[in-house]
């Protein structure tokens, strides 16, 4: 198996990777079932890169139904050892305004009932993965360097709140997340990050802010409700910067 230099997991609004040359479909069965989609493996800046659409290529899988174990197991089996997760989020604190890109360094997990460990596999040893720093320090640093090399502004640090979804949050829920110290909110950051750690994958997250989380818009109670048009429009606008950023990452 030829190694993969980087696997990228795309989220809402990101179902293909711009700039990936000669992509070929690659799919493997896993002991945990099927991944959301086949991976697309190609080259980018001369390096081997795989791309996987977390929700499926037609966004048919809701966040609480994603088979996170199969997605990560398949990428690992295909030869990936580094994973960059792209996560669309709502911004809670002022640094994370719509269209900002950021590299968080912490997570709080509010999800429930998801398959969140590989230890449940028959015969698997119990593992207590070390997770004080949930993201890989080297991959985060490389991403931040890529941002400065490519002239792409990245918000450094911050805490990602992983909520259950698929509904959006109430204002009271977001106030609680803010009090807990969260900066952005999404529905897919966990158990993905913890499963990656169990597989010893170097995993980091790039957030794309799509909207102000409920009640965080400076327009206050006059703010318009969050719509998918707003979310997808902001993801499309912000993701115009991704090809340059990822190319700079692959050139390191
Ligand atoms: C209002 S869109 C919510 C949807 O978008 C995010 O997906 P992803 O993290 O895969 O980019 C969020 O987690 C929800 O799944
Ligand atoms: O406001 C949000 N909340 C949760 N997940 C999200 N993904 C994009 N925006 C949001």
From TrEMBL:
Phosphate binds at residues 12, 54-55, 188. Keywords: Glycosyltransferase, Purine salvage, Transferase. Its EC number is 2.4.2.44. The record marks 169, 228 as: Important for substrate specificity. InterPro entries: MTAP, Nucleoside_phosphorylase_d, Nucleoside_phosphorylase_sf. Residues 6-249 form the Nucleoside phosphorylase domain. The keyword Iron does not apply. The keyword Transcription regulation does not apply. One of its GO terms (molecular function) is glycosyltransferase activity. It catalyses: S-methyl-5'-thioinosine + phosphate = 5-(methylsulfanyl)-alpha-D-ribose 1-phosphate + hypoxanthine. Pathway: Purine metabolism; purine nucleoside salvage. Substrate binds at residues 187, 211-213. It is an enzyme of class 2 (transferase). Belongs to the PNP/MTAP phosphorylase family. MTAP subfamily. Homotrimer. Although this enzyme belongs to the family of MTA phosphorylases based on sequence homology, it has been shown that conserved amino acid substitutions in the substrate binding pocket convert the substrate specificity of this enzyme from 6-aminopurines to 6-oxopurines. NCBIfam families: PRK09136.1. Catalyzes the reversible phosphorylation of S-methyl-5'-thioinosine (MTI) to hypoxanthine and 5-methylthioribose-1-phosphate. Involved in the breakdown of S-methyl-5'-thioadenosine (MTA), a major by-product of polyamine biosynthesis. Catabolism of (MTA) occurs via deamination to MTI and phosphorolysis to hypoxanthine. This is Probable S-methyl-5'-thioinosine phosphorylase. It comes from Pseudomarimonas salicorniae.
């Amino acid at each position: 198996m030829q190694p993969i230099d980087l696997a990228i997991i795309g989220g809402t609004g990101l179902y293909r990777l711009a700039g990936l040359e000669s992509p070929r479909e690659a799919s493997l069965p896993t002991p945990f079932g099927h991944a959301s989609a086949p991976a697309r493996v190609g080259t980018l800046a001369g390096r081997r890169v795989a791309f996987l659409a977390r929700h499926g290529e037609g966004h048919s899988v809701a966040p609480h139904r994603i088979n996170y174990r199969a997605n990560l197991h398949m990428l690992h089996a295909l030869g990936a050892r580094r994973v960059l997760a792209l996560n669309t989020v709502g911004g809670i604190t002022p640094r994370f305004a719509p269209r900002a890109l950021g590299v968080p360094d912490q997570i709080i997990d509010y999800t429930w009932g998801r398959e969140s460990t590989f230890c449940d596999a028959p015969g698997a040893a119990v593992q207590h993965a070390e997770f004080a720093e949930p993201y890989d320090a080297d991959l985060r640093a490389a991403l931040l360097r890529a941002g400065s090399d490519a002239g792409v502004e990245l918000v450094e640090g911050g805490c990602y709140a992983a909520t259950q979804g698929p509904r959006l949050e109430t204002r009271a829920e977001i106030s609680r997340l803010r009090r807990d110290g969260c900066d952005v909110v999404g529905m897919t950051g966990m158990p993905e990050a913890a499963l990656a750690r169990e597989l010893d994958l170097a995993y980091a997250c790039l957030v794309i802010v799509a909207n102000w989380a409920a009640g965080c818009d400076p327009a206050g109670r006059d703010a318009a409700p969050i719509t998918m048009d707003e979310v997808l429009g902001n993801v499309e606008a912000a993701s115009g910067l991704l090809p340059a950023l990822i190319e700079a990452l692959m050139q390191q």
